[in-house]
């Protein structure tokens, strides 16, 4: 057992020792190690983590399906308290509670100015490199760099992030619930509200009801969809989907598209949101969508998962639209403010999404829970001093 590490010196600009869950090799258990966390540089903030969710994307790196540099501190869905800010930071201050976004949208590049901030050039570059926006890391072991998953690395007691990644939230939201806003909620909700632009009275199918899919269900319900068909292999997740607003629940199978059409006057749904990233579920999503409908692909499948649709009979003749949704096509600060208001009013469910909590030393158990596709989200809660 590794003892809890203490801060070296409680003064600004000093490196800190932090316990972190480090992935050193694909498919090997993460190791709880002491790492050195450098102080924040200009435009950065130091966060003491309160809670972090465990997502399928963490597993994709763990299993080698999403290539990333190693060793790496996993984790990209978290919330915590600002401890220290670097030069030039005015958006947050020490003591603020924040949600962390793994896409530090710059607001200045071609894509941000074109109204597509989820394609931000600087943010996507940092995310893919496992580094800060300047290409360097703030984590190290014995002088060797340790990479940050998606520019965050939230499986650590302390992390340094770009100030644009730290969005202030009301103190009344628990860290376990707030953590989920930064990835699963924003991605799923945004897929329904921003990308699909679900309208009042429309019919929606959500294929794959894990953390992202359940929030697509919520987004569709809040948007006023009259019928929401939740599709998943697991009874537990289908029951959760009903609590999030689904009107119908189905399991995948050879007759799935026919079953969906039978619920929608024989036509198919207006919108199908695919959140599993599997070949068969993508195929089913296209088939269950009506002529002139929209198919939104969200799932992060491996390279061998392809979109295979006959160009004329599948798209031209039917006038279906197939579009990708990355991070819910979100404007992070704007959408997180909306989500916190919806939660405060009781319209957005977060408590129900926290299916199981784990201590930091149970990180590998949390990863296994996620791999078993149980519940909505496993959440790792840091020690009591980290805050609630």
Structural commentary:
- It is a single chain.
- With 388 residues, the protein is α/β, with parallel strands linked by helices.
- It folds into 2 domains: 16-184 and 329-386, Medium-chain alcohol dehydrogenases, catalytic domain (Quinone Oxidoreductase, Chain A, domain 1), CATH 3.90.180.10; 197-324, 3-Layer(aba) Sandwich (Rossmann fold).
- The chain is built from 11 helices and 18 strands.
- Strands 3, 5, 6, 9, 10, 17 and 18 form a 7-stranded mixed β-sheet that branches. The chain has a 6-stranded parallel β-sheet with strand order 13-12-11-14-15-16, sandwiched between helices.
- Helix 11 links the parallel strand 17 and strand 18.
- The longest helix is centred in the middle third of the chain and has 21 residues, at 175-195.
- It is globular, with a radius of gyration of 21 Å.
- The two termini are 25 Å apart.
- Mean pLDDT is 92; it is low at 1-10 and 384-388.
The pLDDT mean sits at 92
Terminal Cα span: 25 Å
The share of residues in helices is: 25-40%
- How many strands appear in the DSSP assignment? 18
CATH topology value of the largest domain:
Quinone Oxidoreductase, Chain A, domain 1
Structural class: alpha/beta
- Proportion of residues in β-strands: 25-35%
Assigned CATH class of the largest domain: Alpha Beta
Going by CATH, the architecture of the largest domain would be Alpha-Beta Complex
Radius of gyration: 21 Å
Largest sheet: 7 strands, mixed
Shape: globular
* Whole-number count of domains: 2
SSE run: EEEHEEEHHEEEEHEHEHEHEHEHEHEHE
Low-confidence stretches: 1-10, 384-388
